[in-house]
Design brief:
The chain is mostly helical and 206 residues long. The chain has 2 domains: 54 residues, Multidrug-efflux Transporter Regulator, Chain: A, Domain 2; 117 residues, no CATH class. The chain is 69% helix and 2% strand. The protein has 9 helices and 2 strands; from the N terminus they run H-H-E-E-H-H-H-H-H-H-H. A two-stranded antiparallel ribbon has the order 1-2. Strand 1 and strand 2 form a beta hairpin. Helix 3 packs parallel to helix 9, helix 4 packs antiparallel against helix 5 and helix 6 packs across helix 7. The chain is elongated and about 65 Å long. It starts with a helix and ends with a helix. GO terms for molecular function: DNA binding; DNA-binding transcription factor activity. Keywords: DNA-binding. This is DNA-binding transcriptional MerR regulator. It comes from Saccharothrix violaceirubra. Pfam families: MerR_1.
Amino acid sequence: MRIAELSRRTGMPMPTIKYYLREGLAHPGERLSVNQTSYDETHVRRLTLVRALIEVGGLSIAAAREVLRSLDSREALFTVLATMQNHLVTPVEQSAETVADKARDRVRTLVAGRGWHVDLDSPPATVLVDALATLDRLGHHDYATILDTLADAGQRVAEAEVGAVVGREDQDVVEAAVVGTALGGVVLNSLRLLAHQHASATAFGA
């Protein structure tokens, strides 16, 4: 197919497709002549994945390139997901002040109590610590009382997402996990915000 057809199939403008190709996010098409290049179904699938990671998942071009490189190299699932998570959240420099120490202890206790096998130095953990410390600084100490409830919800979601890809071919599992990690947060947060609307209307009679 020509690039115009590729644009129609993927829903991407041709300049965007050319940009992603120049950035090495998809393999080049087959050169037919100086002004003509042919593309196939692998380009449709790859560009759809690129769009999911960047335009929906919010990854930068550089981050998407690294995730795709990890995916293409057929690295182990945990390695690919670690690469993905490292780009989905941006850790802040942790303070040594007491409120941050308390937040770190709270996260450590939560993880230990639930028997989770996680990296407490990973970006998701450090972002969680900073969020809890910020809540404390703002005086919202009561938020900590629902932390276990949120962890329960997070665990159920994670188990459902992992369960959804179990049984696929090895590489399909890795790609499905990457897509789920990138878009799952978008879906989950959207559902959470919709549920907030309902809960607020119920609680306050709006």
